[in-house]
Amino acid sequence: MNADVPQPLIVDVLLPLRLAGKERARRKAVAEALSVEPARIVELRLLRESLDARHKPIQFRLRLEVGLDSPLPPLPPIHREYSHVPDHAPKAIIVGMGPAGMFAALRCLDRGILPVVLERGKDVDSRRADLDYLHKSGEVNPESNYCFGEGGAGTFSDGKLFTRATKRGPVQEIYQVFVSHGAPSALMTDAHPHLGSDLLPQIVKNIRQSILQAGGEVHFQSRVTDLLLSTNQRSVRGVVCADGRVFEADAVILATGHSARDIYRMLHGKKILLQKKAFAMGVRIEHPQYLIDRSQYHLRAGERRDPLLPAARYALSTKIADRGVHSFCMCPGGYIIPAATDDDEVVVNGMSLSHRDSPYANAGFVVTVEPQDSAELESEWGVLSGMMYQKNLEQQTARAGGGQRKAPAQLADDFMKGRISSRLLNSTYEPGIVSCPLHELLPAGIVWRMREGLELFNRQIRGFSGPEAQLVGCETRTSSPLRIPRESPSLQHPEIEGLYPCGEGAGYAGGIVSAAMDGLHTAEAVAAQLKSQA
């Protein structure tokens, strides 16, 4: 660094809601913070923007880079090009085209490795048609649904891109890749960025084009059913697909997502080491969005939020008798969706569009499930017992709904008092809801903790468990109930050389950004291993 070149200053300022976007107000606030004349401020650049709604008046907190007495150095353009990888380059099979798989493929290209992506589901446009049919008919396509298909479960979700897993990798790099593939540039400065399921499909398609243009391969409707192992069963040579096609490569990255139960069964059947892990189950809780706005923005009765404010969100968490009780995947201005992957299940999840303009808010309201909770299933299912504990509740939920993907529901107040709801509120869950005693459907250890959690959270958000709150069941796919182990630093499975468990399905991520970072991290490990073998 040249000491003679003046370095940009970083300044945090608070500005009222209606002034935060005005350049003149920003300059004045920065000049006051630095105790300088406004004329000395040559340029301002927004680094981070967050909402401070703890008190009235609501303000925006801006982190600004300041060019004092001179302009700021220009930023490099956010544009990623990937060098073409020749056919004779080392190959990595990537099973799954969710965030982990996509970003693993991009990093493989960076490292001169040819990625061969095998996705069991369809391309994002065909997938959208299958989802429309699911909403109309209630019929689940087991290979093309809210969990399986191009982009993974994150494509049709709220598209939340903030993460607390910053120690795992370069969050800004993930954002840059999204922006270079069509995401709004505001993604780089928003403290809680999200994209929405109306924007994500095109971004996912653009990432696919980057992979193809650089020589990579993407194969849809290519469900992997087996691993090709060496004679001594200690290394992997490739995979076999359901239609009999065989793909061979130098490495296999398993990035299948948390719902690929057939992959867990296949690994277990081959006696490849798996481990049970904690996950969470519960319901979706749905409220009118104005109720959340009223609490989070300190509005008076009948007062609506300012149009400049986004739909309010929340994150609630506590521990009750050594188990976590918390909100999950909160969707302001969102919708409850049918996320089953088999026709004998009902599973609910949440999504929203980029504008988050639905009149309802929803979130998972879940309780931690520990490995010992499924102990009674271990004699039959072994390490898969947690997965079957999850599956059993999904089947019971389907029976309680009565068919056609209808979901059991109950007013929060009735759940608290242990009575069936004589009426239900409107819901965004399109297949429809039916009144059901969720307090009898859910495991007892989840029910009493949910009741205590509802009582506690109602003190934090007025009306959270009140007459306008409705529970829709059941939320079961918060994370994988299994971990596919890997060793550090190679990230290979401890028993199978060349097999790289990755992302949410392997138990190493939770959300779009952390899965994407794990994809980058895993591809780097593959590159390091192949280089050492060259």
Task: Report the sheet-strand fraction.
Answer: 15-25%
Principal-axis shape equals: globular
**Major β-sheet profile:** 7 strands, mixed
The total count of helices amounts to 13
The total beta strand count reads 22
**Numbering strands along the chain, what is their spatial order in the largest sheet?**
13-14-17-12-20-18-19
Alpha-beta content class: alpha+beta
Uncertain segments of ≥5 residues (pLDDT<50)?
A: none
Mean pLDDT, to the nearest integer, reads 94
Helix content: 25-40%
Radius of gyration: 25 Å
**Termini Cα gap:** 37 Å
List the helices and strands and how they pair.
Elements: E1 9-16, H1 23-34, E2 41-52, E3 59-68, E4 91-95, H2 99-110, E5 114-118, H3 124-137, H4 171-180, H5 200-213, E6 217-219, E7 224-229, E8 236-241, E9 246-248, E10 251-254, H6 261-269, E11 275-276, E12 279-288, H7 289-296, E13 317-320, E14 323-331, E15 334-338, E16 348-352, E17 360-369, H8 378-381, H9 385-401, E18 407-411, H10 412-417, E19 433-435, H11 438-441, H12 444-460, E20 470-475, E21 482-483, E22 499-501, H13 512-533
Parallel strand pairs: 4-5, 4-10, 5-6, 10-22, 18-19
Antiparallel strand pairs: 1-3, 2-3, 7-8, 8-9, 11-21, 12-17, 12-20, 13-14, 14-17, 15-16, 18-20
Q: Could you give a short description of this structure?
A:
This protein has 534 residues and is α+β, with helices and mostly antiparallel strands. It has helices at residues 23-34, 99-110, 124-137, 171-180, 200-213, 261-269, 289-296, 378-381, 385-401, 412-417, 438-441, 444-460, 512-533; strands at 9-16, 41-52, 59-68, 91-95, 114-118, 217-219, 224-229, 236-241, 246-248, 251-254, 275-276, 279-288, 317-320, 323-331, 334-338, 348-352, 360-369, 407-411, 433-435, 470-475, 482-483, 499-501.
